[in-house]
User: Which sequence fits this backbone?
């Protein structure tokens, strides 16, 4: 989630309204509320005239660029006959209050947008997926945010399932799949979009590591070394952040790397003897580990961890997803019969970073305004 400021954040309520539209919401930290992103005076936010409602199938990604909000419409390939223009991928801008929506560009009926990111505020980079003869072709494209014009700057290697893993500044991190001596390998490549230069990113054996990509860093735990690394994939510098991360190593215990920020790491450990999964946080400054207990039950009864969505700029606080809310929505069956379906939407909160890493559930909950 990138559309976050110190005062609030922009998101989409994916629960469909009766006409098929969805709502753009603004999470205001001062009032602890999620409100429709509409600047129309006296609007009741219940009809199609509401500025906060949009018809956009495939999802919407919001991003903050200076004093404007950018909306990336993902689109649904091959669905124009069913949904019309609302199924087309595209790029829009709007004012922070939801007014002034302007369409910059639209894409074709067989195209979808993925993985948007911004470098200097002038250009947007995305993966453009195009269906050709039943097979998807993926290009990394650059979109001029002043004109909406776009160009393909790199074609992904479909044969080796190349995909975008991360982006920072003028560089992108690409991952592909290949076989080395009968074993699956996933080589990483840094591509500098400004120069076109490519460089292999050194990365250990897949079977010996679990990793997470955040910004310009690849954080990974090496089972054989029992050590946590921070690999800067832009400069290619690899540093050991913590040796002997777990006393005596993990043995037969499997681990998944979940998060690493503010001198803390979060891992999930599966204990095969007891068929139990533990969440463990490690304070990298002192080397101590403890159970991480910030969890919730989703509407199906499964346990999920409270997840950091973003750090609030200029603060030591996090925006977190800390629960789910069951919601009924009205729709129609294929024969036109009205019915009510049940779905869920996330619950958001704000909390101090120190509370998060000490598993203290001190949330400022953001409430939906119906």
Assistant:
């Amino acid at each position: 989630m990138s559309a976050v400021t110190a005062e609030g954040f922009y998101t989409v309520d994916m629960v469909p309204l009766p006409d098929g539209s969805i709502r753009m919401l603004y999470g205001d930290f001062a009032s602890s509320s999620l409100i429709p992103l509409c600047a129309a005076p006296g609007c009741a936010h219940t009809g199609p005239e509401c500025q906060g409602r949009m018809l956009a199938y495939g999802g919407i990604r919001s991003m903050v660029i200076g004093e404007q909000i950018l909306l990336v419409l993902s689109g649904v390939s091959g669905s124009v006959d069913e949904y019309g223009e609302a199924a087309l991928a595209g790029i829009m801008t709007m004012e922070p209050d939801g007014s002034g929506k302007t369409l910059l560009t639209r894409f074709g009926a067989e195209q979808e947008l993925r993985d948007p990111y911004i470098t200097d505020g002038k250009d947007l980079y995305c993966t453009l997926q195009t269906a050709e003869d039943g097979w998807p072709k993926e290009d990394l494209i650059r979109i001029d945010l002043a004109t909406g014009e776009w160009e393909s700057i790199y074609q992904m290697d479909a044969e080796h399932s190349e995909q975008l893993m991360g982006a920072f500044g003028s560089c992108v991190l690409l991952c592909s799949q290949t076989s080395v001596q009968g074993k699956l390998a996933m080589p990483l490549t840094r591509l500098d979009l400004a120069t076109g230069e490519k460089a292999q990113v050194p990365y250990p054996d897949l079977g010996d590591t679990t990793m997470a990509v955040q910004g310009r860093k690849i954080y990974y735990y090496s089972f054989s070394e029992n050590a946590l690394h921070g690999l800067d994939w832009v400069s290619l510098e690899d540093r050991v952040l913590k040796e002997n991360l777990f006393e005596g190593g993990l043995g037969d215990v499997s681990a998944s790397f979940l998060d690493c920020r503010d001198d803390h790491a979060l891992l999930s450990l599966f204990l095969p003897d007891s068929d139990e999964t533990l969440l463990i946080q490690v304070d990298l400054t002192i080397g101590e580990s403890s159970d991480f207990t910030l969890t919730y039950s989703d509407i199906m009864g499964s346990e999920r961890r409270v997840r950091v969505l973003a750090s609030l700029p200029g603060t030591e606080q996090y925006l977190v997803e800390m629960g789910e809310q069951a919601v009924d929505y009205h729709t129609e069956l294929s024969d036109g019969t009205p019915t009510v379906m049940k779905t869920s939407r996330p619950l958001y909160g704000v909390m101090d970073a120190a509370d998060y890493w000490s598993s203290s559930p001190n949330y400022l909950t953001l409430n939906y305004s119906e």
The chain is about 0% helix and 55% strand. The two ends are 23 Å apart (CA to CA). Helices lie at 80-83, 353-357.
